[in-house]
Write a structure and sequence with these properties.
Strands 2, 4, 5, 6, 7, 8, 9 and 10 form an 8-stranded mixed β-sheet that branches. A two-stranded parallel sheet has the order 1-3. About 40% of the residues lie in helices and about 20% in strands. It has helices at about 1-30, 50-55, 60-65, 70-75, 100-115, 125-135, 145-155, 175-180, 200-205, 220, 275-280, and strands at about 45, 80-85, 145, 190, 210-220, 230, 240-250, 255-260, 270-275, 285-295. It is globular and about 45 Å long. The protein has about 300 residues and is of the alpha+beta class. Residues about 1-35 have low confidence and may be disordered. A hairpin with a 4-residue loop joins β7 (about 240-250) and β8 (about 255-260). It is built from 11 helices and 10 strands.
Length: about 300
Amino acid sequence: MKNFKLIAFLLGMLSISSCDNSSEEIKQANEPEVNQKMYSLGAKFVDPQTYESYQKVDLEALTMKYMGKNASAAKTTLPSSYTITSSPVGNQGAEGSCVAWATAYAAASSLEYNFKGMTFPNATRSPEYVYNQIKIGTCAQGAYVTTGLNLIKNQGVCSWSEMPYTDTSCSTLPNTAQKNAASTHKFTSWATVNKTDLTAVKTLLSMKLPVIIAVTVDDAFYNMGSTGWIWKSHSGKNYGGHAICVVGYDDAKQAFKVQNSWGTSWGQSGYFWIDYSFFAKSFGGAINECYVAYVQ
């Protein structure tokens, strides 16, 4: 009888343990997988007063230069959707090099292709060249977007083939040959963009001018797969700043298309979207800083 009671007790404990394990498995299965894998960020934000002091984009001058019409006329003839041709999505890996990927790899490469007649892969600019010179502290700590913009304006940026990217070291500085190669691939200038003027942002994109943005990554950013990869609001934990490049828009989606630097297995083959209204919010919206760079 005692043996029977002991066996019954042990079977009961086994059953409880099994139920607990099943509950834990269900809990883990329901947790968003993307939150289990953190990606490298790296954008530092300037203070609001400094940001306001920067030159603001002269849309009137740009539309006359690139389209031969004034800004008002350019805005009224916008297509309902547009995507700029840029370099293929890449992966910044373990370094906090997103600023270099947004300014050099995405934006500068696009300008080389669309305005200087270069073809890929020759048009692809080196994030290694930029990040290794502008990083703050360790390889993981990142940089300011404006530092990257100024470096490309003053020095230029060589091609990927001339200085390939690696995320295993950021201590290698460009040599004389690489700096000479960079010197003919400079930004003419850069300026801030009014994020609240959606038509102006779309006009810049329609002129094949990518828009570089700095955002705060949070849980909603990591979990936007549940909303069709359209980022619509902030929520959850703040993980830090991230620099990325807006390369298009779609009025049907009511969203801007953004090229990320986390590889093609993330998002929609490496891209995602930012809802128009979230993009344009003055306070608490998607955008912390918004820039455009251009060339002759």
